[in-house]
C-alpha cells in the first residue's frame, strides 16, 4: 500500500500544505468542513489508506482501527481523544497523535468570554437592542453579576474543576480580573504552578464558588461528574461554565437547576450529545450556548492542522510521532 492519508474532513490549508509537501496522496472523506463523516465512509476510507487524519467527531472505535491491518497511525486534529478507542489502538500497536498545548490559550479565552457573557448578560443585551426594546439608559436595566471585585472590595470566587493546561490558563486570567480562584484536581501539587490559586476539595469548591468552570477530560471518572446532587450543592445563584466536554454535566439536571432558580446561569460550549442540545437550554436568557468553539481561532486551527499533518507524515514514513497524546 503506497503512503497515503485519509483525511476525514477538509482541514485548514496549512495542514494540507504539509501533507502535499511530503508527497503523500490524499483522500478527503467530507469536503464540507462543517459536516461530519458517517461511520461507514470512515471505515471505507481507513480500508483504502494506511494513515488516518481525523476529527473529534469521528468515532474511531476498535472496528475502525481493525478495518485495515496495515494502519500505521491515527493523527487526530484535537487535543481531546475521547472519540478514539485508545486501549484498542494500543492493543493493535497503532500509534495515536493529537495536538497538545496549542489550543490552551484560545480555550481559556473562550471560557472567560462565556463567564463574562452570562454574568453581564451580554447576549441578552444584544438581543434587547436588536429587537428595538431599548427605550433609554435604565438604572435597573439588565443588571448582572460582577466578575471583578465589588465596590466594597469583595471578591467573586471562581472554582476551577480540573487543573491541566487549560484550567491553569483560566486561573491566570481570572486572577487578572481580581477574582479569588480555587481549584480542584486529583494532583493538588499542580495548583502551586499558578501562585494565588488555592486548592479545594470538590465539595467545598462547589459550595463556595460564584462561578464554576469545568476543565477535566472526558472519561469514565468524569462522566456526569456534575450530576443533580453536585448541582444542588452549588452555591445558590452561582453560574456554571463548561468548555471541556458535555458528558461531564448531567444536562437534564442542569436544566432543572436553572429552572428552579438554584443556578443563575450557564455558559456552555460543549453538550452531552453534540450537536443536539437539551431543549430546556434553548431560548433560555440565562444560558449562553456556543457550538464547541474553544479552539476556534484562525491561528490555532491552522497550527492544529499542521500538527496533525506532521503526525500523519511521520506515521506514513514510519517515524516517531512528533506530537503524541498529551
Ligand atoms: C479539542 O481539541 O479537544 C477541542 O475540544 C476542540 O479543538
Features of this protein?
326 residues, 2 domains, Rossmann fold, five-stranded parallel β-sheet, binds (2R)-2,3-dihydroxypropanoic acid, seven-stranded parallel β-sheet, alpha/beta, elongated
In short:
The chain has 326 residues and is of the alpha/beta class. 33% of the residues lie in helices and 16% in strands.
Topology of this structure?
Blueprint: E1 4-9, H1 13-21, E2 25-30, H2 39-48, E3 51-54, H3 62-65, E4 73-76, H4 86-92, E5 96-97, H5 104-119, H6 122-130, E6 157-161, H7 165-176, E7 180-184, E8 197-199, H8 202-208, E9 211-214, H9 228-233, E10 238-242, H10 251-259, E11 263-268, E12 287-289, H11 298-317
Parallel strand pairs: 1-2, 1-3, 3-4, 4-5, 6-7, 6-9, 7-8, 9-10, 10-11, 11-12
Helix pairs in contact: 1-11, 5-7
The chain binds (2R)-2,3-dihydroxypropanoic acid (DGY).
The site of (2R)-2,3-dihydroxypropanoic acid has 7 residues, from loops.
Note down, in words, how this protein is organized.
With 326 residues, the chain is of the alpha/beta class. Helix content is 33%, strand content 16%. The strands form 2 sheets. A 7-stranded parallel β-sheet has the order 8-7-6-9-10-11-12, sandwiched between helices. Helix 1 runs parallel beside helix 11 and helix 5 crosses helix 7. The longest helix has 20 residues, at 298-317. It binds (2R)-2,3-dihydroxypropanoic acid (DGY).
Amino acid at each position: 500500500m503506497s503512503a497515503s492519508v485519509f483525511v476525514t474532513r477538509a482541514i485548514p490549508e496549512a495542514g494540507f500544505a504539509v501533507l502535499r509537501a511530503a508527497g503523500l496522496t490524499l483522500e478527503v472523506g467530507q469536503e464540507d468542513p462543517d459536516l461530519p463523516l458517517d461511520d461507514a465512509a470512515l471505515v471505507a476510507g481507513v480500508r483504502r489508506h494506511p494513515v488516518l487524519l481525523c476529527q473529534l467527531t469521528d468515532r474511531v472505535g476498535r472496528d475502525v482501527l481493525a478495518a485495515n491491518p496495515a494502519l500505521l497511525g491515527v493523527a487526530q486534529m484535537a487535543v481531546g481523544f475521547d472519540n478514539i478507542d485508545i486501549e484498542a489502538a494500543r492493543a493493535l500497536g497503532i500509534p495515536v497523535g493529537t495536538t497538545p498545548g496549542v489550543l490552551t490559550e484560545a480555550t481559556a479565552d473562550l471560557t472567560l468570554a462565556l463567564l463574562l457573557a452570562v454574568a453581564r448578560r451580554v447576549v441578552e443585551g444584544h438581543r434587547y437592542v436588536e429587537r428595538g426594546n431599548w427605550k433609554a439608559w435604565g438604572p435597573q436595566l439588565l443588571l448582572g453579576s460582577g466578575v471583578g471585585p465589588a465596590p466594597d472590595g469583595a471578591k467573586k470566587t471562581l472554582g476551577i474543576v480540573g487543573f491541566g493546561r487549560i484550567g491553569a490558563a483560566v486561573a491566570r486570567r481570572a486572577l487578572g480580573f481580581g477574582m479569588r480562584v480555587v481549584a480542584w484536581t486529583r494532583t493538588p501539587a499542580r495548583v502551586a504552578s499558578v501562585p494565588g490559586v488555592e486548592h479545594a476539595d470538590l465539595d467545598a469548591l462547589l459550595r463556595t464558588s460564584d462561578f464554576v468552570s469545568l476543565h477535566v477530560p472526558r472519561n469514565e471518572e468524569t462522566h456526569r461528574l456534575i450530576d443533580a446532587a453536585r448541582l444542588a450543592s452549588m452555591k445558590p445563584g452561582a453560574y456554571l461554565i463548561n468548555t471541556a466536554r458535555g458528558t461531564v454535566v448531567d444536562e437534564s439536571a442542569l436544566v432543572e437547576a436553572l429552572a428552579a432558580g438554584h443556578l443563575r446561569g450557564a455558559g456552555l460550549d460543549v453538550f452531552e450529545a453534540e450537536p443536539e442540545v437539551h431543549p430546556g437550554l434553548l431560548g433560555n436568557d440565562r444560558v449562553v450556548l456556543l457550538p464547541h468553539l474553544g479552539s476556534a481561532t484562525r491561528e490555532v486551527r491552522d497550527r492544529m492542522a499542521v500538527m496533525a499533518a506532521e503526525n500523519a507524515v511521520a506515521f506514513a514514513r514510519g517515524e516517531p510521532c512528533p506530537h503524541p497524546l498529551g
